[in-house]
Amino acid sequence: MLLNIISSILIFTGVFFFAVGVIGLLRLPDVYTRLHATTKCDTLGAGLVLLGLALQGNFVIGLKLVVIIILLWIANPTAGHVIARAAYNSGIPLMKGSFALDKTSKEKGS
Q1: CA-CA-CA-CA torsion for 102, 79, 35, 81, nearest 10 degrees?
Q2: How far apart are CA 13 and CA 28, in angstroms?
Q3: What is the pTM of this model?
Q4: Residue with the larger pLDDT of the pair 87 and 110
Q5: How far from 26 is each of 12, 29, 34, 67, 108, CA to CA, in Å?
Q6: Of 67, 47, 56, 48, whose CA–CA distance to 2 is shortest?
């Protein structure tokens, strides 16, 4: 009974973070802020949902889901970084009022 309650709380909390990520994707102004919102919320949301499911399964299923969580924690932020870097290198502009260092100031060490 307690295991079911804990598992349900983890799953519903994960779904909440997925919903926040979707709202961030729809409401935020540029690709960089949208990407930040979705990668953070999806990583946490998927981790919580999979952890809740791992508590419901047997040991082998739980172990597989924990391995998936670890791989997700590595792959999702890395993919978000690669996408943001590609967007930046492609010249996709930031929202007005955002701030970014220009390439010359980074090279000079400022």
Answers
A1: -20
A2: 22
A3: 0.81
A4: 87
A5: 21, 8, 8, 31, 37
A6: 56
